[in-house]
């Protein structure tokens, strides 16, 4: 399912492990900064259910496609390889925590 039909540097993804793992993933990022506004030149990340849409009831969030594990990333001007490495190490941190 596509959430937008125009070019963007934003990525929406559901983190399969729920809100706890999505939160750990975001906290593990070193280059992507945690922020409510995704409009900067730097790479940013957010968990809308507890940030931008925290005041929206859970039932309404689900209707508009914002689950507790939805992560939004905005890709900035950093080197692509550095961003990929940052995402990889955050995934690895969550994976290792589950062991």
In short:
With 99 residues, the protein is α+β, with helices and mostly antiparallel strands. Helices cover 36% and strands 15% of the residues.
How would you describe this protein?
36% of the residues lie in helices and 15% in strands. With 99 residues, it is α+β, with helices and mostly antiparallel strands. It has a 4-stranded mixed β-sheet with strand order 1-4-3-2. The N and C termini lie far apart (31 Å). The model has no long low-confidence stretch (mean pLDDT 88).
Termini separation comes to 31 Å
> What value does the Rg take, in angstroms?
13 Å
Which band does the percent of strand residues land in? 15-25%
Helix/strand order: EHEEHEH
Mean pLDDT value = 88
**Order of the strands making up the biggest sheet:** 1-4-3-2
Task: Supply the number of helical segments.
Answer: 3
Please state the structural category: alpha+beta
Which blocks of ≥5 consecutive residues have pLDDT under 50?
A: none
The helicity comes to 25-40%
Major β-sheet, in short? 4 strands, mixed
